[in-house]
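Final report, closing paragraph on structural work. Over the funding period we assembled a curated collection of sequence-structure pairs, and we close with a single example.
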Amino acid sequence: MPAYYNEIDTYAAQWLSNLITAGHITDGDVDERSIKDVKPDDLKQYTQCHFFAGIGV
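Its predicted structure, as stored:
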């Protein structure tokens, strides 16, 4: 299962996507929505969830 990364900052979200593509962090989906808009049902498919993920380090 992919990981879930939540990051509202566009630059940091792109950085996360680049790290995923390069294989430096766990494969997953980057969600740029506000944490206020994320619902529990949105996360059911994930075994790892990273909120306010920053640049993944």
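The chain has one helix and three strands. Strands lie at 3-6, 28-31, 48-50. We thank the funder for supporting this effort.
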